[in-house]
């Protein structure tokens, strides 16, 4: 099985308010992201919380009624970067049947379920330890790491980044070329949100 880690622990400093709670159509941003991964067929969706934890957690509990979603709190969210949330998620995925984790962004409601499916299908077909979507030679999210690499990711220092890890494994990456730039889009600023909001 491929598990999902959704990174939703950020403090939303550039946005000025919690990104996960912003309206997106009839739902919130984080609800939309959960929905996308569920529609893509993901059976274990783990949301890493941090900033606005209690309010995000309420949404996850509500979403659990319809989707296979749960959460884990990243206690280091204020000092840690994206890597600390990835490590937090991987430490929680202890079930033996999980072959890989696909890592998505909680502030990426534009991403398409078809992109998620294509990354997972590429892993199943190629058994590559790293599968990364790309658009016009630019890496995006969600990307997938096979279980064989988890210990290495967990051993990365706080000053290292997921980008450092991917660069170190450049020869191991299987790229999936996408026809949509949505894998590159996220919501960092009020302007990003204004332009992207449906």
Here the CATH topology equals Spore Coat Polysaccharide Biosynthesis Protein SpsA, Chain A
State mean pLDDT (0 to 100 scale).
94
Supply the CATH superfamily name. Answer: Spore Coat Polysaccharide Biosynthesis Protein SpsA, Chain A
Q: For this structure, what is the CATH class?
A: Alpha Beta
Q: Count every helix, treating DSSP H or I runs of 4 or more residues as helices.
A: 7
Rg calculated over all Cα atoms: 16 Å
Describe this structure in words.
- This protein has 198 residues and is α/β, with parallel strands linked by helices.
- It has a single domain (2-196), classed as Spore Coat Polysaccharide Biosynthesis Protein SpsA, Chain A, CATH 3.90.550.10.
- Helix content is 33%, strand content 22%.
- It is built from seven helices and ten strands.
- It has helices at 29-39, 53-63, 82-92, 113-126, 150-154, 162-168, 190-196, and strands at 2-8, 23-24, 27-28, 45-49, 69-73, 100-105, 130-135, 138-139, 143-146, 173-177.
- The strands form two sheets. Strands 1, 4, 5, 6, 7, 8, 9 and 10 form an eight-stranded mixed beta sheet that branches.
- The protein is globular, with a radius of gyration of 16 Å.
- The relative contact order is 0.18.
- The mean pLDDT is 94.
């Amino acid at each position: 099985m491929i598990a999902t880690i959704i990174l939703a622990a950020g403090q939303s400093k550039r946005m000025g308010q919690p990104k996960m709670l912003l309206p997106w159509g009839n739902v919130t941003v984080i609800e939309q992201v959960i929905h996308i991964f569920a529609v893509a067929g993901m059976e274990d969706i783990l949301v890493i919380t941090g900033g606005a934890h209690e309010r995000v957690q309420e949404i996850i509990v509500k979403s659990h009624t319809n989707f296979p979603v749960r959460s884990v709190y990243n206690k280091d969210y204020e000092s840690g970067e994206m890597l600390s949330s990835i490590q937090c998620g991987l430490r929680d995925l202890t079930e033996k049947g999980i072959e890989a984790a696909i890592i998505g962004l909680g502030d990426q409601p534009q991403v398409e379920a078809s992109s998620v499916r294509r990354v997972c299908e590429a892993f199943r077909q190629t058994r590559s330890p790293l599968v990364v979507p790309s658009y016009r030679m630019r890496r995006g999210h969600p990307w997938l790491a096979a279980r064989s690499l988890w210990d290495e990711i967990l051993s990365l220092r706080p000053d290292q980044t997921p980008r450092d890890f991917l660069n170190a494994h450049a020869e191991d990456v299987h790229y999936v070329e996408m026809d949509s730039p949505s894998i590159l889009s996220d919501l960092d600023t009020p302007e990003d949100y204004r332009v992207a909001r449906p």
